[in-house]
Design a protein that fits this description.
2 copies of one chain form a homodimer.
Chain A lengths: L5 E6 L4 E6 L5 E7 L12 H16 L3 E4 L14 E2 L4 H5 L3 E4 L7 E4 L3 E4 L5 E4 L2 H8 L6 E4 L4 E6 L5 E7 L1 H10 L14 H14 L3 H4 L2 H7 L8 H17 L9 E4 L2 H13 L4 E4 L3 H12 L8
Helix pairs in contact in A: 3-10, 4-8, 5-8, 7-8, 8-9
């Protein structure tokens, strides 16, 4: 059997996904450790966790590994210092952090650095993992790209797919906190999607992002006044928050062309609907960008040549 | 011993406070049932809870009772329909909802209606309890009054202390959710106030209220980048949120004179500091306004005359 060229790890806070890549970055195998994110690894024994998931690959193929995500954070295996924006894939390829996998192998794990930028407000922003995804998507200069999630990322792309600047919006976390632990969730009934209530909320959030802590209170009064049934309140709130995210992010400039949406399909559809309410076109980017980015990083760093 | 003229109840979601008032509204006695709010009353047996706290007053003085707060909500004793804004104390005095206290007494409880208004965004806003506090404060026409809290209320006052319009901001709840259940709390160390970090946050919130879900992420990066020590992050976040509340509320018009702050002293000081960062003067209103408002309501409704 041929030797594989690279093992890629997408190792975040909650999950771990490993892939075995052959020539040209072809995906030979995928293994997922659901709930195997860095916070779930006991006593930070990352080498053991890695060995448990794909020790056989490492032994058999003796190829290098590339990892991106929170594994490079202070809570991860080893901290990979942030690269400052603007940053290209070529910049990152020269700054991979090598870590010995250990335990009877000379295999090396190369951790992709996260990115850092300073916003117009003078505050730092950070990402770990999304940079690899963005580079893998190989977006054209001038594109604005949104990666929806617990912490949504907005990124603006320059020449050579450089990430010029980006912004984090804690939209998914706000939704979870307000519905699971807050008063707004008490009037809600979950499980029945409502596109109409979502669009109504998105309209409200797009206009009311300047007073978000007031605007979301509409998700309570709409219930109290029986303007919306309990089953429609979750999507009404979701619309308010995503609308407010979009309304706020657009303050720093309208996108030149269609906004690129990168991530999980259901969430991207939700964002596309909110952008449509805002009158802005979107296009979906294929979701396998992380692996492509990791392959390109390994290639540019000279890791994938001859793995024997 | 003289007969009392009125028993007032400030009966909210979390707490119950009862007062026995004599001639002219003089406070004779105060009793507090900490944790005796409407959500803590088993099987909604409000008559029993009332009797346990001040059944002896009712038996001895046989005077009427006036109650304000969430006791008039759908989850309370009986729902007192909302009054629409603008609303004066005189309007509310004609709309008190009488409820028989029952259990061997002919005493009547009069529930003060909450207020409702429709914002510029077409959404309803509601309050229960704060209207009595505002009327008790007898504010001059043109004043803007802020009642800080879990759900802060901003009220704009018209002629005859009418509440022209108001806005709820869920600021206190956002702070609790983000620090107790969210990722921002994980880097924080609580218990050491920092006026400087609060002011820094307030400045940021005043400017960044349009992108709140992004702006609060600075409370994470300031920790990650060691710009602020863990002990200063709680007040930094508190500043961001209160600053964002103020920045957002001012979108609907700058206050004509000093903003009136009404409520608990420590929280009012915090708001005064944030308003100072915004360059806006404030003045503190004495905190016993609820009882004064309830006395005035009883007086105008003709309840306090002869209680025998």
């Amino acid at each position: 059997m041929d030797r594989a060229r690279l093992i890629t790890l997408d190792w975040g806070t909650s999950n771990l996904r490993a892939r075995l890549l052959g020539d040209g970055g072809a995906v030979w195998q995928t293994r997922v450790s659901a709930g195997g994110g860095i916070l779930a690894v006991p006593e930070r024994r990352f080498a053991d966790a890695l060995s448990a998931l794909c020790g056989d690959w490492i032994d058999e193929h003796r190829c290098p590994l590339v990892a991106s995500g929170m594994i490079g954070s202070r809570q991860g295996w080893q901290e990979a210092p942030y690269l400052d924006c603007p940053a290209t894939l070529a910049d990152a390829a020269t700054r991979l952090l090598p870590v010995a996998v250990g335990a009877g192998t000379d295999a090396m794990l190369h951790i992709v650095p996260g990115l850092r930028c300073v916003g117009a407000d003078g505050q730092y922003d950070v990402m770990r993992g999304e940079e690899t995804q963005l580079w893998g998507a190989a977006l054209a200069a001038g594109r604005c790209c949104v990666l929806p999630g617990t912490h949504s990322k907005w990124a603006w792309v320059g020449a050579r797919s450089a990430i010029e600047r980006f912004q984090t919006h804690m939209t998914g976390e706000f939704y979870a906190l307000l519905t699971q632990h807050g008063i707004l969730g008490k009037l809600m009934q979950f499980g029945m999607p409502s596109a109409a209530a979502f669009a109504q909320g998105a309209q409200l959030g797009l206009q009311g992002h300047g007073t978000l802590m007031h605007t979301v209170f509409a998700a309570r009064t709409a219930g109290l006044m029986e303007r919306l049934p309990p089953a429609e309140l979750p999507d009404f709130l979701s619309g308010i928050l995503i609308g407010a995210e979009i309304g706020g992010a657009l303050l720093s400039g309208a996108p030149a062309g269609p906004v690129a949406l990168l991530g999980e399909a259901v969430l991207c559809e939700r964002y596309a609907a909110a952008f449509a309410v805002a009158g802005l076109p979107t296009s979906r980017v294929d979701d396998d960008a992380t692996t492509r980015g990791q392959w390109q990083l390994g290639l540019q760093a000279g890791l994938t040549g001859d793995s024997r």
